[in-house]
Design a protein that fits this description.
binds S-adenosyl-L-homocysteine, alpha/beta, 20 strands, Archaeosine Trna-guanine Transglycosylase, Chain: A, domain 4, 7-stranded mixed beta sheet, 6-stranded mixed beta sheet
Length: 396
C-alpha cells in the first residue's frame, strides 16, 4: 500500500533540510491518505519534492518524527534492526570489567525517535515514548534482545510524555524472567537496581562520568548530596575517601536502597547520614544549624521540562544554589546540575551566577559537566542536550 503523503507549508522545509527529526503540526499543509497512529508517512516539501520518511503521530504536536532522511529507504524490520545494532555496538567500549550498565538506545540521537533502552547487567529496560516506537515495539524489542544478547527485557513505558502521543502507560516484563532486583557495577562500585519500582528505568546512568569526577574530588571532604536518589554520588564520594556524606531525598524507597548500596560496597555507615526530606526545607535547616560542607552535589529533578516552565524553574534553581553556596566552606566545591530541557546551559550559568551574587560568594566555574557518552547528542538535535552542570569553587 502506498504511504500517505504529507506536504509541508511553504518555508517549513528548513528544519528537515538541517536534519532535525521533528515536524510540528503547524508546519503541515496537507495529508493525502489516512495514516494510522505510528504509520510511516512520506514528507514532501511545498514544491512536491520528497524529503524524508517519518512516523505519524496524529495526536501529538510533534506530528511526525523522521526515521530516514532518504525518502526511498523502506522502514521495515531490517531497517530498524540495523539502527538498533549500530546503537548497541557504539556502546561496546562503555561496558567493561568495571561497568556492566549503560544506555543502549537514546531515542532521536540514535536515529530511533522515542525509543530508549538501558542495560543493567543482563537485563534491558525499554521505554516506548512516541507513536512510531510504539508501532514497531515488537520488532525493536526482538532486535534489541538479539543484538544485546540479553534474555530479560522489562518495559517502563509508564511516563507522562506518552499521554501527549495519545498512548496509554504500559509496564511489565516483556521477554524472559525478571529478577526483582539487578546488581550492577559502575566504576567498580556496586548498586542495586529495582527495575520495576525505581525512578525512570531504575538508575540515572547519564551521571556516570560525573559520579566518577565527584569520587576523585571527595578525599577528606565533608560532602552534602542533595536529591541523592539511591546514593549514586554518595557511594562515589565514599569510594573517593570522603570524611562524611549527608544525603537528602524526598523518596524513602530511594534512601532505603541508598543505604543498601553503601553496605553493598562495604563502606562504613558511620560516615553516612540520610534525611528523607524536602531539599528546599532541609537546606534552610542546615543553614540555621550553622552546618558547613566542603563538597556539595545538587542534582535535582527536571524543574523545567520545556521553556514554558523556565521562569518558575529558574527561581527554584537559584534558591537551592544560593543556599548551597552559603553552606560551603571557603575553598569548597559545588557540583550543580540541571536536567531541564527548558533551561539552556547559558541560562543555567546565569542562574548560578545570580545565586552566588545573592549569597555574597566569590565563586568561579572550574569545570562543565554533561551527560555521559552513552547519552549522545545528535548535532542536528539540540533537544538531546538536556543535562548540564557546573563545578563551582567558592574562593576564600
Ligand atoms: N543524583 C541521583 C539522581 C537524582 S534524581 C543519582 O546520581 O542517582 C532526583 C531525585 O530528587 C529523585 O530521587 C527524587 O526523589 C528527588 N526529589 C525530587 N524533589 C525533591 C525535593 N523537593 N526534595 C528532595 N528530593 C527530591
Amino acid at each position: 500500500m502506498a504511504l500517505a503523503r504529507v506536504t509541508l507549508q511553504p518555508g517549513r522545509e528548513k528544519s528537515l533540510e538541517q536534519r532535525h527529526p521533528w515536524v510540528f503540526s503547524g508546519s503541515i499543509a496537507t495529508v493525502e491518505g489516512t495514516p494510522a497512529v505510528g504509520d510511516t508517512v512520506l514528507l514532501h516539501g511545498s514544491d512536491g519534492s520528497p524529503l524524508a520518511s517519518a512516523a505519524w503521530s496524529p495526536e501529538s504536536k510533534i506530528r511526525a518524527r523522521v526515521w530516514s532522511f532518504d525518502p526511498r529507504e523502506e522502514i521495515d524490520a531490517a531497517f530498524l534492526r540495523a539502527r538498533v545494532g549500530a546503537a548497541v555496538r557504539a556502546r561496546d567500549e562503555l561496558l567493561d570489567s568495571a561497568h556492566n550498565a549503560c544506555r543502549l538506545i537514546h531515542g532521536e540521537s540514535d536515529g530511533l525517535p522515542g525509543f530508549v533502552a538501558d542495560r543493567y547487567q543482563d537485563v534491558v529496560v525499554v521505554q516506548m515514548l512516541a507513536a512510531g516506537a510504539e508501532r514497531w515495539r515488537d520488532t525493536l524489542i526482538d532486535a534489541l534482545a538479539e543484538v544485546s544478547g540479553c534474555g530479560a527485557i522489562y518495559e517502563r513505558s509508564n511516563v507522562d510524555v506518552r499521554a501527549l502521543e495519545g498512548l496509554a502507560p504500559r509496564e511489565g516484563p516483556v521477554r524472559g524472567t525478571m529478577p526483582p532486583r539487578v546488581d550492577i557495577v559502575e566504576d567498580g562500585l556496586r548498586f542495586v537496581i529495582d527495575v520495576a519500582h525505581g525512578q525512570k528505568t531504575g538508575f540515572y546512568l547519564d551521571q556516570r562520568n560525573n559520579r566518577k569526577r565527584v569520587r576523585a574530588l571527595a578525599p577528606g571532604r565533608d560532602v552534602l548530596n542533595c536529591f541523592c536518589y539511591t546514593g549514586g554520588f554518595t557511594v562515589a564520594a565514599l569510594a573517593g575517601g570522603a570524611k562524611s556524606v549527608l544525603s537528602i531525598d524526598s523518596s524513602a524507597e530511594a534512601i532505603a536502597l541508598g543505604r543498601e548500596n553503601v553496605a553493598a560496597n562495604a563502606f562504613d555507615s558511620a560516615r553516612t547520614d540520610w534525611r528523607d526530606a524536602d531539599v528546599f526545607v532541609e537546606l534552610r535547616k542546615l543553614r540555621d544549624a550553622a552546618r558547613a560542607f566542603d563538597l556539595i552535589v545538587l542534582d535535582p529533578p527536571k524543574f523545567a521540562p520545556t521553556a514554558q516552565h523556565a521562569e518558575k524553574a529558574a527561581r527554584a534553581y537559584k534558591d537551592i544554589n544560593l543556599l548551597a553556596l552559603k553552606l560551603l566552606r571557603p575553598g569548597g566545591l559545588l557540583a550543580t546540575f540541571s536536567c531541564s530541557g527548558g533551561i539552556s546551559a547559558d541560562l543555567f550559568q546565569k542562574i548560578v551566577a545570580g545565586a552566588a551574587l545573592d549569597a555574597r560568594a566569590n565563586a568561579v566555574v572550574i569545570e562543565h559537566f554533561a551527560a555521559s557518552a552513552d547519552h549522545p547528542v545528535a548535532l542536528n538535535f539540540p533537544q538531546g542536550d538536556y543535562l548540564k552542570g557546573l563545578l563551582v569553587r567558592k574562593n576564600a
